[in-house]
Amino acid sequence: MSKQELVVLGQDTDDTCCTGLASAPLEEDRAAGLAKVFKALGDPVRLRLLSMIASRDGGEVCVCELTPAFELSQPTISHHLKLLRQAGLIDCERRGTWVYYWVLPGVLDRLGAFLTTARTAAVTA
Q1: Quick one: pLDDT at residue 119?
Q2: What is the pLDDT of residues 47-99, one digit of tens each?
Q3: I need a labelling partner for 125 at 20 to 30 A (CA). Which of 50, 64, 79, 99 fits?
Q4: Distance (Å, whole) CA 74 – CA 68
Q5: What pTM was estimated for this model as a whole?
Q6: First-to-last C-alpha distance (Å) of the chain
């Protein structure tokens, strides 16, 4: 297991945590953190995995239910899930033989808010 420190989006204590892409230029450290998240989402398998986890009733899913949806080996699926965890998008817990995954609270909302421009928000409101 990696001991890499993860930056979870929107956990800042100041008011800049929820500023969108078009509201102000990104600082270098925030851009680096967001780039890791978007890089993790840039792979179709990881994007599908995140969608499968996020859309699951009850908010969590067993890896045993994720693996059959792909024509990939179990170690490859585990690798993709590890990258999603390292990006701060999901978390997991081992229960006996199986590992259960869930999307971290608020992560998708913060990503959506980051990508929403003031103009887009006004149109949809």
Answers
A1: 60
A2: 999 999 999 988 899 999 999 999 999 999 999 999 999 999 999 999 999 99
A3: 50
A4: 9
A5: 0.75
A6: 43
Q: Which residue has the tokens 């792979």?
A: 43
Of 55, 72, 85, 56, nearest to 94 by C-alpha is 85
Confidence of residue 124 (pLDDT cuts 50, 70, 90): low
The position carrying tokens 């993790």 is 40
Residue with tokens 């995140």: 50
Question: Per residue in 18-56, pLDDT tens?
Answer: 566 777 788 898 888 888 999 999 999 999 999 999 999
User: From CA 30, how far away is CA 9, in angstroms rounded?
Assistant: 9
Per-residue tokens: 31 = 């851009």
Report the distance separating Cα 73 and Cα 12, nearest Å: 38
Dihedral sign from CA coordinates of 91, 93, 99, 103: negative
Separation between Cα atoms, residue 116 and residue 62, nearest integer Å: 32
